Amino acid sequence: MDELDLELDDIVIFELPTFDDIEAFCSRFRPRWSGWSHADEHVWLFTADLGSGDGDLAALLSEARGLLLELGLSAIRYYLDGRVYVLEAARSRVLAASDS
């Protein structure tokens, strides 16, 4: 295990498509989860430290799914424990009801 692995322990990294999305994530999550953000012309990253705030990964991901829906994003990638995952937007209640 290298030093970078230890530094990223309990950190969720979200890869977002625009700087505006980073600002939305900051507004929603910074009051409860500390972290950092990085933006340049090719990549926009937002992190949440699970060791801070309530530390609840399920709550973070659930709320992030809702925010994706609000932002009109269908899915994003996120990184946790050295693995890459896809987080899909929450389904709207109208859409979910029409599937029934």
How would you characterize this protein structure?
The protein has helices at residues 3-7, 19-29, 57-71, 93-99, and strands at 11-16, 37-39, 44-49, 75-80, 83-88. Residues 1-6 have low confidence and may be disordered. The protein is 38% helix and 27% strand. The protein has a five-stranded antiparallel beta sheet with strand order 2-3-1-4-5. A hairpin with a 2-residue loop joins strand 4 (75-80) and strand 5 (83-88). It has one domain (3-99). The protein has 100 residues and is α+β, with helices and mostly antiparallel strands. Helix 2 crosses helix 3. The termini are far apart. The chain is globular.
Short account of what is shown:
By secondary structure, the protein is α+β, with helices and mostly antiparallel strands. It contains 4 helices and 5 strands; from the N terminus they run αβαββαββα. 38% of the residues lie in helices and 27% in strands.
